[in-house]
Write a structure and sequence with these properties.
By secondary structure, the chain is mainly alpha-helical. It has 18 helices and five strands.
């Protein structure tokens, strides 16, 4: 395969994106080096070590592996990083006096990464025609992906120096995170609009299902009729969800949500849940097919935006907004944060707390707990 990263060959982002490498062949290359007493990645070039890194995430342990969508996001960010370094050296302010074995990665210096971080924030957005710089959350995500990959290269001895040691830590304050908060009244306003003001059972059903289960957009798109179970002992429906890293969780479905699903399916001219094949998607497009996560996100966002409801003046609503709404409504309903964490399929409490900072701050201020003191007559 063509050496993809060297000084004289500025391979375009699209060409990089279209290259595919067999994980099995990459493993065999590792074994060959090991049998010959050489470093594991002795026979790898830059494209191969990148492909190995991306595929290793999903092949090592399916239970802990990243989702396909996450892997694609990693791939996109890393290929963009490579393209930037190759095509904007002068703008970034870096020079490669001599390439190390035709390898970009082995030629990187800590100062290159430090300059790249500054360029990405201060210059690149305007080069591509943006009117403003990237948000702190976007910069933090890009930096985290690049740093993770370069640390991997160092840990497996593909590169001989830790080039990330001068990278600045990008942090995101709660105030800098996108406003995805919808309270119960705003959710009701949306549901009322799509059931009473305009009769749109498809949008209503999608919102109803998202907000009452807290599931991710990708999880919703993968659901099949066979994932719905009726528990006769509890007289209730349950939904079996496969989340990130192939983790399973069971979510109850209220009768009204089942009704919403069936009304959605009737609007799409497909049979009700109880009359459908187990392999059929629960939520279907106008052609009876499953939604892709990107299309569903765009479809939902556009339809909601066209309502011109007052709440939309300060926020953009996506499927993930309703996951946040689920957490907020659950918290206000008296559920402790550990129950909410398990319901959302989070592995740690810190992730769940990101969904609830304003709610928790409002409830934890000291004066709210003064009711039993002598000063209660003045509060």
């Amino acid at each position: 395969m063509q050496q993809i990263i060297n000084r004289g060959n500025k391979t375009t982002y699209l060409e990089l994106q279209n290259q595919k490498l067999s994980y099995r062949l990459l493993i065999e290359k590792r074994y060959k080096a090991e049998e010959e007493g050489k470093p594991d990645f002795f026979y790898f070039n830059d494209m191969e070590i990148l492909a190995y890194y991306l595929q290793h995430q999903t092949n090592l342990d399916e239970r802990k592996g990243k989702s396909e969508r996450t892997i694609q996001a990693y791939k996109q960010e890393l290929l963009a990083f490579i393209s930037h370094i190759l095509n904007y050296q002068d703008s970034i302010g870096i020079q490669f006096n001599q390439m190390d074995s035709d390898s970009l990665f082995k030629s990187l210096l800590p100062s290159h990464l430090e300059k790249y971080q500054f360029w990405l924030v201060e210059k690149y957005p305007y080069i591509i025609g943006r009117n403003s710089s990237y948000s702190p959350a976007t910069i933090a995500r890009k930096n985290a992906i690049i740093k993770s990959f370069l640390r991997f290269l160092y840990e497996v001895s593909y590169i001989d120096k830790d080039v990330t040691r001068q990278m600045k830590q990008a942090t995101v304050n709660n105030d800098e995170r996108p406003n995805r908060d919808l309270g119960v009244n705003e959710v009701i306003e949306l549901l009322d609009f799509f059931s009473e003001v305009v009769d749109q059972p498809v949008i209503f059903g999608i919102i109803h299902l998202l907000v009452t289960t807290g599931m991710r957009n990708e999880e919703l798109c993968k659901l099949q009729v066979g994932d719905i179970e009726y528990d006769a002992d509890r007289n209730r429906y349950y939904l079996h969800i496969t989340g990130k890293g192939n983790k399973k969780r069971i979510v109850p479905l209220r009768d009204k949500v089942i009704d919403s699903i069936n009304l959605l399916r009737a609007a799409r001219n497909v049979p009700y849940i109880e009359d459908s094949s187990p392999s059929m998607p629960i939520i279907v497009t106008s052609t009876g097919k499953a939604y892709s996560s990107s299309y569903l996100s765009q479809y939902l966002r556009n339809v909601i935006q066209r309502t011109n409801l007052p709440m939309l003046q300060k926020k953009t609503i996506t499927p993930h907004t309703f996951r946040h709404a689920f957490a907020i409504i659950s918290y206000r309903s008296g559920n402790d944060i550990f129950k909410i964490m398990r319901s959302l399929g989070h592995e740690n409490i810190e992730t769940t707390q990101i969904y609830l900072p304003k709610e928790m701050e409002k409830d934890e201020f000291s004066t709210l707990h003064w009711d039993k003191t002598a000063i209660r007559k003045y509060i």
